[in-house]
Amino acid sequence: MTLEEFNKLIPGLAAKDHNEKIKLFGWYLHVHEAKSRFQTGDIKRCYDNSHIQAPASFSGYFDNLTKAGKGLLRDKSGYRLESTLRAELDDLYGTRDITIQVQNLLLELPEKLPDLAERTYLDEALICFKHRAYRAAVVMTWNLAYHHLCDHILKNRLNGFNTRWPVVYPGHHRKELKIIQKMDDFNEVLKESQVIEICNSAGIITGNIHKILKEKLDRRNSAAHPSDVEFGQLQAEHFIDDLIKNVVLKLK
User: Fold this and answer.
1) Are the CB atoms for 13 and 7 separated by under 8 Å?
2) Domain residue extents for the chain
3) pLDDT, tens only, 179-214
4) How far is it, in rounded angstroms, from Cα 114 to Cα 135?
5) pLDDT greater at residue 148 or residue 110
6) What proportion of the chain, given as a percentage, has pLDDT over 90?
């Protein structure tokens, strides 16, 4: 992993205090530059190459971190992270089980998605995830799941959906009764949130799927529009894992 990739892995790295940044850069040096020990100069290089303003002096921060329980050890060869802290950071930012799980989930999914449009969304989600474009991966995974939901309605539950629509949103039908007939109708006459509510009312989706879809739609909106909500690898992995396993693979 390059230092640039490491910076993308950790949302808000630049805003963290110097104690946290030193520990994180120390972990990077251990794991990705294979350094058993590092010096203050190595940490400064990480700051400089990450375009982050370094403190005027590192000595006070290093002295503080080498105190008992602060996570940093020192010997004549330099500094190293204490084993508990390193293990904690390994769990957070190393090659974790969920990372492998999500990658495999996306790679194996095409066999279960006969719809060509869904496979296109999936291909784009996988490309985005692999290239650490996590906001885009979230948006494309949502597109996949929402298209899958609409396709499920059209193929299996269309009558129930059209019957329940006037009950849930009677105002939509004041001038004339509307019905869904094809995929484009969903986008032309209903919001995504409204489709989800009609499906819930009609029993097309379970309460658990309804809850997941509402939550993930809110997250998608935060990812798709300018906001101060941060999206890193951890957030994208959990979003993709939950939506694919508990929505896409459950609606058949």
Assistant:
1) yes
2) 3-93, 97-248
3) 999 999 999 999 999 999 999 999 999 999 999 999
4) 26
5) 148
6) 59
Of 36-50, 62-76, 88-102, 184-198, minimum mean pLDDT range: 88-102
Closest CA to 102 of 250, 235, 209, 2: 235
Backbone phi, psi, residue 191, to 5°: -80, 160
Q: Which two tokens stand for residue 67?
A: 């105190």
Question: What token pair was written down for 48?
Answer: 């400089």
| 3-class SS string, 11-42 | CCHHHCCHHHHHHHHHHHHHHHCCCCCECHHH
The architecture CATH gives domain 3-93:
Orthogonal Bundle (1.10)
- Report the distance separating Cα 144 and Cα 125, nearest Å: 9
The C-alpha atoms of residue 147 and residue 161 are separated, in whole angstroms, by 15
pLDDT band (50, 70, 90) for residue 174: very high
β-pairing, 72-75 vs 78-81, is antiparallel
What one-letter code names the amino acid at 115?
Answer: D
- Asked if residues 168 and 197 have their Cβ atoms less than 8 Å apart, the reply is yes
Is this prediction's pTM over 0.90? no
* Amino acid letter, residue 59: S
Q: Which residues lie across from 118 on neighbouring strands?
A: none
Would you state the structure tokens that stand for residue 60, as one six-digit string?
Answer: 């006070």
Give phi and psi for 199, each to the nearest 5.
Answer: -60, -40
DSSP string of 78-128, one letter each residue: EEEE-HHHHHHHHHHHSS-HHHHHHHHHHHHGGGG---HHHHHHHHHHHHH
